[in-house]
Amino acid sequence: MHIAGLGKHGEKAWYQYKLIRVYNPRETIDMLEIMDLLVRIYNIFFGASVLFLIAVGLNIIYGVMKIVNLAHPAFFVLGCYTIAGTGMGVMINIFGSSIIPLLITPPLLAAFVVAVSSLLIFPLFLFISGKGDEVQLLITYGLLLIFEDIFRLIWGSEPLRASQPFELAGSLSIGEYLIPVYNIYVIISALVIALILWIFLFKSKSGLLLRASSMDIEMAAALGANVKKVLLLTVLIASFLAGLGGGLFIPSASAMLGMSVEFLVLAFVVVVIGGLGSFLGSLVGAFIVSVLRTITLILFPELELALIYIVAIIILTLKPEGLGGGKKW
Amino acid sequence: MLKVEDLHLRISNTDILRGVSIEVEKSEVVAIIGRNGAGKSSTFKSIVGIYKPSRGRIQVDDLDIIKLPPYQRVAKGIGYVPEDMRVFPWITAKENIYLAAYLSKNLDKIDDIMNMILTIFPEIKNFLDREGFYLSGGEKKMVAIARSLATLPKYLLLDEAFEGLAPIVVERFKDAIEMIKNQGIGVIIAESNVVIATKIAEKLYVLERGETIFHGSPSDLLNNQEVMKILRGS
Amino acid sequence: MSKKTGRRDFLKGLVSGLVVGGIAGVAGTEIYRGLAPPPPPVREEIPTTPIKAGIQAYLTGGGALWGKPMMQGAILAIEEINERGGILGRKIEYVVKSETSPEETVREYRTLVLDEKIDFYVGLISSSNTPAVGPVAEELQTLTFFVDGCTDFLFESVVPDPRFCFRITNIQSADGVAAAIGAIKLLNLTEKDKVRIAHIHPDYAYGRNAHAHMQITFEKVLGKDRVEVVYEAFPGLFKITDFSPYITEIIANRPDILASSLWGADVVNFYKQAIGYGLFEKMKYVSCIAHAASPAEAVKDFPDGHIAGVHANYFFLYPEWDKYPINKSFVNNYYRRWGTYPDSPSEGAYVAVYLYKNAVEKAYTMIGRFPEVDDIIRALEGMTIYGPAGPIHVRAEKPNKHQCYKDGIVGISKYDPRFGFSVLDKPIVIPISKITVPEGWEGTPDPKAGTLAYSWIRETWREGVVPV
Amino acid sequence: MVERLKRFFGDDIKTNFIFLTIIAILYPIIYVFSPGWGVVLGHGVTWISALLGFNLLFGYTGLLSFGHALFLGVGAYTVGFMYKYLGINNIELHLLGGILSSTVVALIIGPIVVRYTRIFFAIFMLAIAQILWSLYYKFYWVTGGTDGIKIPRFSILGISLEKLDFATYHHVYFYFVTGLTFILVYIMWRIINSPFGLTLKSIRDNETRARFIGVDIYRARLYAFIISAIYASITGVLAVNHHRLVTPDIAYWTTSGKVVFATLLGGARIFIGPIVGSFVFHIIESFAMKFIYWQMVMGILIIAIVILMPGGIAHLARTLVDVVVSHRRRGG
Description:
The structure holds four protein chains of four kinds. By secondary structure, chain B is α/β, with parallel strands linked by helices. Chain B has nine helices and ten strands. Chain B has a six-stranded mixed beta sheet with strand order 6-7-8-3-9-10, sandwiched between helices. The relative contact order of chain B is 0.20. Chain C is built from 16 helices and 15 strands. Chain C has helices at 2-25, 64-83, 102-114, 129-140, 153-158, 172-186, 205-222, 244-252, 265-276, 279-282, 295-298, 325-338, 344-367, 373-380, 432-435, 452-460; strands at residues 51-57, 92-98, 120-123, 143-146, 165-167, 195-200, 227-233, 257-260, 284-287, 307-309, 384-387, 390-394, 404-405, 408-416, 421-430. Chain C is of the alpha/beta class. In chain C, helix 3 (102-114) runs parallel beside helix 4. In chain D, helix 3 runs parallel beside helix 8, helix 4 crosses helix 11 (217-243) and helix 12 packs across helix 13 (273-289). In chain D, a hairpin with a 2-residue loop joins strand 2 and strand 3 (159-160).
């Protein structure tokens, strides 16, 4: 059998694969099934990492400011666009194709850009903190719409990619399996970010202030906390994390208009499952949503989206504060 | 001296305060008496800066603080213990105190502060590492006062300090207030119970419908039938 | 009656003669010489007011890879016509609106007709949108050229007897069938004992149709018991940015081929991520559509050696430029105007505008005044013109009345350093008459797949025989 | 005089009827000049029912539902299924079906969700709405997925409208819906000014006190929830008969956002608010859609309106009357 244009490596793999299937079915299949499972788990971790990076910022903002920030995923997408639209090109000009700087600098650049941009809309956050839920929902929804068109205005309407790090990092072959190295990098980075964030929140003075403010910001103020500074810190941290997430995520996907809303829907479920305003909840929730998505894709694809909402509702009914322990962070 | 003059406050078209005036010296215990809704808590919240009065003056040692945001008033020496204590529930008692010291930039003196607190409330040592949520009412009260003391205030506002406490515990707190007073701190207590107030305070103010209708010594008050009648609510 | 038969005979000759041999056979120096003779001298005053065209295209989101070239194709045609003095001396103006979800697309369409008062309409990519707009177009009685939105449902069940709607692109069944036949021929699948197939298609009319038509073709041509479906997934259109869970599932089920109709941003995301998982080395990817639009962006470094479909429509390298100058000049003009190479949606929109022009001129020669909508429609029905992709014919009778037909083309993906992106190599041309429901066929749509083409293939094709 | 004027601008049933009558008189005139804006008015009148229902829950009961698209979706898909599987296109049967199915849905989820308030209620409603949305979206062979279900023109009392031309059909639709809206407005007015309505308001203003004086809060909220659901589903039924297309969009959370915004724009807590809001919202939306960057225009408008006009149009009108009257009095 002739396969046109496969390239040497490809053709070899194609034949190898056929040979294994034909001559040694029993043993290899067991091994392969284990591998399938491992790759699925690996995928779950990747999905959870991305969701965590979005949801944790959403949670921090809700925790301290009591705002369900519908525009938060737009921060994440702004990070994506910063890199896919501009940043990656700049980085490649500077670093060429050396992989390490291309892995590290884009997320940091994105985080910086997003955090600085969040300063511009900070007065709006200041305005809505303490206002009614409906006002907060509408204004952050308005922001989400504006962000979408800002992306279009600056970077155009076509999907943008920044896949160089993804491609340069290549794939790791385990047996006959290939898994992209970049995704491993994302998982590890998310873990490191979670760890640093945990240390900040639970071991630092500012972290203590943030946690106390999330419990009772008025009292924190009566004890001498500058509320504006606390809120600023909150928005900066949340947007920094979102930018970091966007910069990390984008090389493995493409920046697309309308992405914010897709992520909002998922991040929102993460937050509901994990518990509003809970750090631990973001981790738990991200993981659960990722597992649910993978399972439904295998077993009942029709329920892919419904199932995560059903789980969210069950958790809301049984434990309205979420699985992450609610106010405890 | 903490001096409140002619304070007016309006919240959503309702007059909450209509000319409240209070004076507190250092090392003095003053009580503000009034029925529920008379405006005691609102007066406190106006002094702390949670509410923005429409008219009037608030001075700490001849310095006008009415324009300052709450966190700057703390630096000027206003300490506040709200009615429901509002001890942060998910951090430990120690962290509550520690945070207050950090916020008022007294972290370098944290050892002295802890000493002072432990002399006034030795019991606190037993539950320093317990989270606020798991403290009993009396314990919460101690932590709330200790937390406020950690900001090294000149004037301490205690809203309903003795509400819901057993008589023995009330005695315990009376001693504590005495000790705080002896540190040179002016203590203002909002209280609806006339008996307790007259026992603790050297000077009394009576609020009714957002107005100061009486000020003077405990014996003056007990002799003033008119005011006592209002306070009894008849 | 005799007139009808005459036309049908003529068409038969046309389709089998011109269409099959058209690509090599026809040469013309001037773009678009319709079949009609040049117009006679003016008999009645032609208004000088401009003709107004409405264009509706995806301008944002995952569909922009298609919407933008479509808009550019239409604008290029309008500018060319205006440069040469317009249609019968009338210049064309245009308004652009954006294509989004069905509901909003319909609303924008209404605005174009009711407020902008357009004379004709060119637009739409999505198969969700054409069935939504189609009935509205009939109701508002506006001459409407759908560039794409190729679902068989449109002219089979939604608007079975259209007056005002026309559709330029090849019908979906032709698209899916062409890709499957291309795969069978190019990958020599007939030599295999058993073929394991996985499917991934966007979750709406187009993806569902593509799934059905590719599957039935494989089953018919290879034999039902030699085909095994191991995995099927229908991710939402432009809803997924991370395809890794799908990719893992596909690989885990070990198919020989992966049949797919992902398009726009979806296909870009999918293949980029799939490379990382080594998907392309484990199976053959059979796409009916990946190379059809914005190839420079959509399939920049697409792996070599897979089945590259172009929506059974057009790829700018074919018909070969030296043998078919119409295509060469179109590619040149388009590149000069927009800086990119034309693709299936731009060719479609371009042809749509010229169809309108030719129909107006043809009607004018017959009635001697600037034609009304009905005259234009009469002129359009059964018309054949030469577009960049070769001859294109407007069907006049049911089923699929007002659907346009041209030969399908499928090839193998190959990176071309001249262009810097993946192109279509070793193309095979699949005569449209062999893969689509013939005019006048009286069957009923298949209850499961919902299309006539499905029934037609199931009932009339001989199992185990490659029809082309 | 002043009091009467003020009442007229807020809490008088006559104002609502006069407003609707003016729109109904203007409609054919506007349609002649621009059929597009006529269609926009059609949207406006269609949405009044849902906004009234939402306002009963939000403005009068204090429950912010961020998932009202749920009931619009129920109404819409009831119509879709009735046509697709039973071939029914009688609008009166559609309305009946919508009311029945939304009552059933409200009875199933209501007892659970009305236990929650504030943001939890909002989230709960959102999550449930999203479940139904994803079912509409994913079960392609039943619901048509994103392609939706196409329905023909409806018939009234067995009279088919299929043969009418476009303009006539739209007029028939508009006046049918306007007539229906008069009835719906009147019923809602009676509900809000009944003892039940006062109960709701007392719960909104002070839940603890209401409980103290012996109000069965749970039951009152549940009833309000069901009424609200029915009103929203009526808009669902009408809206898809207007578009003649049932798609999951109508059940998506952005639709819920529209409901919230339109109500706030008109003025929550004020009876006429949703009625004014429905028209103004659709006018604003159509205006924004004329721009290429319409999302940005819409976003800026939302933010500006929420910040500058927190009480909505009805509140603004009332304040203006206040100012003018007091100014005149001082001047005279």
